[in-house]
Amino acid sequence: MSNFSYQCHANCSHSHARAGVFHTPHGPVETPIFMPVGTIATVKGVTPQQLKDAESQMILANTYHLHLQPGESIIAKSGGLHKFMAWDGPILTDSGGFQVFSLSKIRKISEDGVIFKSPRDGRMINISPEKSIEIQNALGADVIMAFDECPPGQSNENVVKEATDRTYRWLKRCVNAHSRTDKQALFGIVQGGTYPNLRKAAVQDLMELDLPGYAIGGVSVGEAPELINSIVAQTAPLLPAEKPRYLMGVGTYGEMAKAIASGVDMFDCVLPTRVGRHGAALIQGERWNLKNARFKEDFGPIDPTCDCYCCQHFSRAYLNHLIKSNEILGLMLISVHNVTELVRFTRNIRNAIINDTFTKDFAKWL
Questions:
Q1: How far, CA to CA in Å, does 174 sit from each of 10, 57, 72, 147?
Q2: Which helix (H) or strand (E) holds 311?
Q3: Of the four listed, 70, 190, 208, 269, which is most buried by Cβ atoms within 10 Å?
Q4: 3-state secondary structure at position 245
């Protein structure tokens, strides 16, 4: 078996959903899976041990932000990203391609790559496909992403076609630049906006390169949720069945359940820690603001069915008190719960696929 392989263990008889195992140098990843985001080599407010306790299997870090601070050479000197952040499970680094979209006011795109103005010190930073791969090779994550151009969700077809074509040209440069193919799996990214013809053509181009895995990018970037679902439903089944499929930047219950029904295996999103830092808890599909006065004398746990450290030890009243007192512990505890909740949601879907009860058990999300 190569260092990277995907094995499907069960298929849903009423959808494209599947349960499998993606093998990496830092251990197996059971799919479908939600991956917490640790942009600058930390999942905000959550320790590596708490991530393990939440049964997180794989986490993300961001190439662009780590290049700015502390720099990939420092991380490489420390022994690589796993050692630097004391996480011995699989890691995925995204390429900086999302920042091409999110930092559109401080960047300039050309065929060579993208020049960013650093938000830290104003210096100009040039990231080409080759540079993105060089940084990711130095960081040492198990899965690295191709550098891509992600157009805004409402772009017209000509703009999206230009970005999709450039993404493919950049991908071929990424493949040529990648020097650690035995230790790091390079995933290609399917762009194409909300245009099924562009998505289909992009899939065909990418599959010719026979990469270890494939991602669907350019969703959740300003388009309506129903458009996201229809694009994923059309694109995911076109990707090769023997490779993992990753939907980038999606982490709500409904979007994940629908994408899993379309055949997607992997998800990431900053949602659980971002809302946690604002005092909001995710509870079986709902979002509760624990600052609200109704929790002041509520002595039950966030979720009685949850086995996370927060729910096992603390009440909603205590969390309400911590948040109102601006105590950092409150935000950390809610973040621990939220990460556990989304990891548990995808794990429960996995079990339902294995038992072939997915479409029945998760009907309200489908």
A1: 33, 26, 18, 7
A2: helix 309-313
A3: 190
A4: strand
Q: What DSSP state is assigned to residue 13?
A: T
Predicted confidence (pLDDT) at residue 104 exceeds the cutoff of 70: no
**Cβ atoms within 10 Å of 118's Cβ, excluding its own:** 13
Alpha-carbon gap, residue 239 to 245, rounded angstroms: 7
pLDDT tens digits, 80-96: 999 999 999 999 999 87
Nearest to 147 by CA among 160, 161, 135: 135
- The listed CATH number (3.90.950.10, 3.90.1150.10, 3.20.20.105, 3.10.180.10) that belongs to domain 11-275: 3.20.20.105
Tell me what percent of the residues of the chain surpass a pLDDT of 70: 97
Cis ω before 28 (30° cut-off from 0): no
In DSSP terms, 127 is beta-bridged to 114
Residue 241 to residue 2: CA distance in whole angstroms: 17
Residues identified as active-site: 94, 268
- 3-state SS, residue 303: coil
Predicted TM-score (pTM) of the model is 0.95
Question: With b meaning 16 or more CB within 10 Å and e meaning fewer, what string describes 86-97?
Answer: ebebbbbbbbbb
Q: Write the DSSP string, 57-96.
A: --EEEEHHHHHHTT-HHHHHHTT-HHHHTT--S-EEEE-S
Count of C-beta atoms within a 10 Å radius of residue 336: 25
Which tens digit of pLDDT belongs to each residue from 130-177? 999 999 999 999 999 999 988 877 789 999 999 999 999 999 999 999
DSSP states of 126-173 as a string?
EE-HHHHHHHHHHHT-SEEE-------TT--HHHHHHHHHHHHHHHHH
Rg (CA), the chain: 20
CA pair distance 86, 295, nearest whole angstrom: 36
Q: Please give the structure tokens belonging to residue 234.
A: 């059309």
CB 90, CB 143: distance < 8 Å: yes
